[in-house]
Design goal:
1% strand, BEACH domain-containing protein, BEACH_dom_sf, two-stranded antiparallel ribbon, WDR81, Neurobeachin, Chain: A, domain 1, mainly alpha, 2 domains, Transferase(Phosphotransferase), domain 1, 23 helices
Amino acid sequence: MVLKSDWHIRFLTYQILSALAYIHGLGFAHGNVSPSSIHLSESLWACLNISEMSCLKEASHSASRKACCFAEECPCQEIYANFGLSTSMNWSTSFRRWWAGDLSNYEYLLLLNKLAGRRWGDHSFHMVMPWVIDFSVKPDENSDIGWRDLTKSKWRLAKGDEQLDFTYSSSEIPHHVSDECLSELAVCSYKARRLPLSVLRSAVRSVYEPNEYPSSMQRLYQWTPDECIPEFYCDPRIFTSLHSEMSDLALPSWTTSPEEFISIHRDALESDRVSRQIHHWIDITFGYKLSGEASVEAKNVMLPTSNLSTPKSTGRLQLFTKPHPMRHGVTPHSQYHGLKESCFRCQLQHESKEISSITNGSSHLDPKELLSGTRYLDNLETATLFCERTRYLDSVYNYQEEFLDYNCSLRSQLTDLSIIDTLENTNDATSVPSEFDLGCLLECFEADDNLSMGFQESLNWKQKSSYLGVCSDNHAKDIFSYGCILAELYLKRPLFDTVSFAAYKESGVLPGAIQELPPHVALLVEASIHRDWRRYF
């Protein structure tokens, strides 16, 4: 969401504070306040997602893992479940794992989607994936036929350079592509066989005509100028129609079942060929080719929003300002495939590995290996430098670890408090204030010096008072998160990354970016992130 004025920012932050005040008034702390937990309507009304609260996320964690894609052993359960990514995923760590081949292309691209604000369940900002084959032939890494050119956007491949050049030169606002790489129309057309007819009438066309929807994967690829969706890499159900008037989405001739197609399609995404080129697609979709001279050369200049006075969500978000490094490693098939025991390819790789370990008992260094080792060091240096320059993607908004420790005790204390409330309701003779502090206790004694408070009532008060003291610390951590978000709204980048936050937490050194804030905003941000939280409570 692009906020166009200071008034928009003030209105938004006021709503965030109001939501936190309400939650805190109930005796809870959110514990996971971040930009992704704040939902905005088109009219800028904000909603704080309580399902992201730390005390609720852990309770739903085990259940959410079961809502993964079709494979029970799928390693993407943490990512695919609950329609989102784990908030604990660190970008720099994930990037290094992906670069080395320990994290699949699919998982890494989902992480980039999450960082760009894309999300499951929202057809306007659905998770986006690249098309990697055109479905004309079965993908073969030894052949160039059927593979998609990842150095060009799907829009450019569909429209052609001549048309894009004409659009750029003849438009009042020069541009090559629309403001969205994956439109709501495309998403709903891809998922037409699984969506309710009411959604299709709203997003695609008001008059439902089942024959108007692409009938096969190859036809679908040729029809759309938009990119792909993750479902075509993980969910075989997307081919089966729930509507009697609409036939199932036809599979390519080189596959016999939806499950086989998903396996082959995913193998293509994780292939060595795609792994060596996927950085070009990232540059176009999330990277430096979204702005400046690079976007002109790539014929990737985006059409800007027409109404600058109204906040609007943008479909393309630039995450990187430098070229994305090429991947070094490749994720083994057996690592990302969920059904290992029933997969012929997994078994074949396992047997080949065993034979190789027996026949290659001795090892020696080959000159080519020495050259590749030098190349590896050069590539590693490039990747490390890129990672250092993009530390802002490892943004910090809260003290997550401390909240996780707290939530365990919170649940037990809430259980104790429910028992206490039951005990209090059975004894109307003693009225104990809902807010417990030293002042409340003194007022209670001053009002009636003869008040008789038994051991049970004293114990109840002590437990509640202790709970509220712990709660105040965690309320302050929510305010810390608010301060980080407030700063980011003005800076257009996160206030803390993992390195600057560690330095601030250890020595109290404020990020230099605070000097870039307007004075009144800097004052509020510094007060919100002050390390001595107790002075506010």
